Each structure stands twice: as C-alpha cells, then as structure tokens.
What we know:
Number of helices: 4
Number of domains: 2
Radius of gyration: 30 Å
Largest sheet: none
Strand content: under 5%
Keywords: Coiled coil
Coiled coil: 18-89
Order of helices and strands: HHHH
Number of strands: 0
Shape: rod-shaped
Amino acid sequence: MNYAIPEHLHDFELREWLKNKISELDETKRTIRDQIRQFSNERASRKTREDFAWLRKAKAKISFLIAQREELRGVLGDVNVRLKEAKRKLNSNKRPNIKLAQAFMMVAQEKLNEDLYSSLESEALLLIDLEN
C-alpha cells in the first residue's frame, strides 16, 4: 500500500484520516476515468502507440487505486468496530446496575421506617417520571 497508516492517532482521528484518504483515492479515480472517457471519444486515427500505452497505464493505475481503497476500507472497518465497542462499553457503564438497585431497595425496606421508605420511593418514582 502507498499509505503508511499513522499509529499515533486515536481511533476517532484515524477514522477521519482514513475517510479523507479514501475520498482522495476516489477523486483521483474519477479524474483518470474522465481522461479515459475523453480518450475513448477521440477518433482512432488520431491515436498513437504512446496514447495506447498511456491508456494501459491509466487502467493499471485505476486497479491500483481500487486495491488501495479496499485496503484502507478494511482498516476503516476495524476502526469502526473498535469505536463501536468502546461506545458500547461506555454506555454500559452509564446504565444503572439493576441487581444493585434491587438489593438496595430490599435493604432500605428492612432498615428504614415505613414513612421514610415510602418518601424515598416516591422521590425515586418522580425522578423516573422526569427522565421519561
């Protein structure tokens, strides 16, 4: 591959770098394809041996760019998986631990008097209603 993947970048930065490089490759491919179309529209009598050599090189360059893009796309896929997993871990840490909440409620019900427990339960229900 022509590009050395930077190792010092964090996954968010690496994802943007990869997307930019893929866009550059796509733009280069479009430019070459436009040139090939122009070449194809010219009369055959005007074309020289060098023109056909250029055409072979242009097609080879497109194949090379496609291979580079596929390689970068594979790395981008790996980065996206890592980012998705990191986001999933972050979100799972934000979720309340249901077992802990249930155990806390059982202990509170046993240790607190009925009025205090009911008051706490009412406040908790209010918080739940406010979040929804």
